[in-house]
Amino acid sequence: MKTIRLNKESMDFFNNLVSILRIHPPDQPPRPIGSGFFLSHKESIYFILTLHNFKDIGINKNEIINNKNNLFISIPMQNLEINPEYFYGIFYPKKTHEDSGAALDENDFIVIKIHDALPTQIKDNLRYFGTAFNFEELILEIISKEYTGNYCIGFPLEHSNYDYDCDFETKSVKLQAGLEVIQGIIKKDDENHNLFSLTNIKYKKDNSEIRNNLSKHLNGFSGSPIFAIINEKDFVLFGMLLRANGTAIFIKHIIDFIDNTVNKISILNCKITPDINIEFRFSEIN
Questions:
Q1: Taking the CA of residue 157 as centre, how many other CA atoms within 13 Å lie in the half-sphere pointing to its CB?
Q2: Which of 172, 245, 251, 280 has its CA 20 to 30 A from that of 154?
Q3: 135-144 vs 251-260: helix crossing angle, rounded to 10
Q4: Closest Cα to residue 115, out of 107, 105, 104, 126?
């Protein structure tokens, strides 16, 4: 595994990049959905995670909006939480693998836009990736040189420190997660330019048992960011891990979705129906 030296500020950034989305259904115990990360783009903050994590716990994409008030973003390393009242909106591509029947595709992602009114205490402590870099130029260089300093960090469920406990009556949650790091080489998908693979994966505890059972040891990494650290201080986001086998999606595809869909929609009206579902009426911004 490639070793770099990080100063205290960069190390703090590194350790707080991954957060966890969880759900508190009114008639069920709270439980985690999956990992994700924050992205700052054009003066707004977004939380990005995979769509299939919802399906894995029995929620299809058409039911996600109805569960908006039951979703919470936990930032484990800082013991912070973002309540649904600070979700401006939840967005996903219209056509996904749930429609096509494919195992996954480049639209396997969810975007939660965070409201500008996020409390200062939380906003000041968020760690998020920026997008002010030449993506095409950097990714071409990374791929052509088979650069090995590409990192992916997440909370594997097999980690010895992982523990999740909740009190159904009080709905209090105790989450303990162990952060792990993997590295690999980025290889483009020959058939889909929005997808890539993280190959030659190196795990911190690199032994034959882990190498032969990566899918087991990386269970929980779906939704984790893949990035490089340039000059030992600049964190450059390339994509999001979809599966433990290394399949990933380029972040540029998600940013294009934010620019072309999320930021062309305004919420004109919101009302709470008797069954406590929130209904939105959308209008495209010209």
A1: 13
A2: 172
A3: 170
A4: 126
Tell me which amino acid residue 35 is.
S
Rounded to whole angstroms, the Cα distance separating 241 from 254 reads: 13
pTM surpassing 0.70?
yes
How far apart CA 240 and CA 247 sit, in angstroms, is: 9
- Is the torsion defined by CA of 212, 180, 43, 231 positive or negative? negative
Chain segment 248-285, per-residue pLDDT in tens: 999 999 999 999 988 876 544 444 343 333 333 333 33
Rounded distance between C-alpha atoms, residue 158 and residue 138, angstroms: 33
